Amino acid sequence: MRGCVSKRGNKWCYVVEYGRHPExxxxxxxxxxxxxxxxxxxxALSKVLHEMNTDTFIETTKDDVTxxxxxxxxxxxxxxxxxxxxxxxxxxxxxxxxxxxxLKVANLLPQHLVSMYERMQGGEKKLSPQTxxxxxxxxxxxxxxxxxxxxxxxxxxxxxKPPKIPKAETKVWNEEELMEFLEFTKxxxxxxxxxxxxxxxxxxxxxxxLRWEDVDLKAGKVTVRRSYTRGVVGHIFQEPKTKAGIRSxxxxxxxxxxxxxQRLLLExxxxxxxxxxxxxxxxxLVAQTKNGYPVNPxxxxxxxxxxxxxxxxPRIRFHDLRHTHASLLLKAGVHPKVVTERLGHSSIxxxxxxxxxxFPTMQQEAAEKLDDLMKAADKSSIPIPVAVHQSDGFLLx
Length: 397
Hints:
By secondary structure, the protein is α+β, with helices and mostly antiparallel strands. About 50% of the residues lie in helices and about 10% in strands. The chain has 14 helices and 10 strands. The chain has helices at about 40-55, 65-75, 80-100, 110-120, 130-150, 175-185, 190-200, 205-210, 255-275, 295-310, 320-330, 335-345, 350-355, 360-380, and strands at about 1-10, 10-20, 25-35, 215, 220-225, 225-230, 235-240, 245-250, 385-390, 395. Helix 3 (about 80-100) crosses helix 5 (about 130-150) and helix 7 (about 190-200) runs antiparallel to helix 9. The longest helix has 24 residues, at about 255-275. The chain starts with a strand and ends with a strand.
C-alpha cells in the first residue's frame, strides 16, 4: 500500500493505491484534494494510511440501491425457503427499488426511509403497516449484510422505526358454531380438511400435505412432517420451519372415523378413474382431487368463503379454525403446554401470548372454582376439639 501527494492548480491532493480489484484487475485508488498546503495533504495521507493498515478503513460501495439489493437477493436466495424468497423478491422489485433504487447505498439517510414509509401509508395504493414492516425487515437485512461485507459503515435502517402494527382481534367460533359448520359441510369433499383443521389445530398447508403413511388409525393419531406451501413457482412440499412443527397429534374418535370414510372415498375415486380410462395421479394424500392431485390452497380458500357465506355463520378465516381449536381446548381446561404441542409452537410463551385474550375469563372461572372448593371444605370440616388445661385454667386449641 502506498501513497503520494501532488499539487493540482493552487491546491494539494493525495492519492493512495491499495491493490487491484479481484474481478476486473483494475488498480484501486483513493484520493482527496483541496488541501491549502503540502503539509496538510501529507498529514491527511498519513492518517488514511494508518487507518487502512489498522483495518479501520472502509471503502464504501459506489453501487446504487438497485444494483446492491439485487446482488444481495441472489445471495439470500440460497439461505431462505422458496416461499420466503418469493415474498422478498416481490418486496424488493415492487416497493424498495421503485422508491429507493436510484440512490447510492452509501448515501442513504434515515430521512429517505421515513419519507418512503410515509408515501407507502398514503396515496391510492396505501399499504398496510404489516406490509411496510416487511419492507423494513428486508431493507434492514440487506443493509446489515452490506455492513458485514465491509461495504457500508452503518445500517441506517436501525435508526428508523416502521409503523406500529395494530394488534388484530382473533376471531374464533364457539363449540356450537363449529359443530353447525361441520354439520353443514359434512357431505362436501372438503369436510375432512375442515375437520382435521378444527380438531387438530394443524395449519392449512399441514393438512393438505398429510399423507396416509403419516396417519395411524389404530392408535388414533397423525404425525405432521411437512407442509404444502408456496414455492418460487406454484406450491411445493417442504418440512415445517421449526423442529416443534414436526409433531404427533392424538385424534378425537370423530376424526378417526371420518378418516376411515375418507380412505374409502379416495379408493372409489381411483376405481372410477380406472374404469373411465382417465389419468389418476395418486400422491398418497389424505385430501386429494378426484384425479389424485394435491388440493390447490387458493381454490380451497374460495370454497371456504362460499361455505361461510352460505352457512350464515360469523365470518372467520380458514386459519381461524386453528385458533378455534386452541381456544376451545383452553376453555375446557386443557393445560397450555398440551395446546402448545398440538399447535407446534416452539414455546409455551407463544401460545400464552397469542391467546392471552382468553385468560381474563379463565381467571374468573378459576377463582369461582376455588371459591366452591373452599366452601365445600368449610361445610364438611370437623369441629376442632377444645381441651381445658387443668393446672392453669385456660383453654388450649
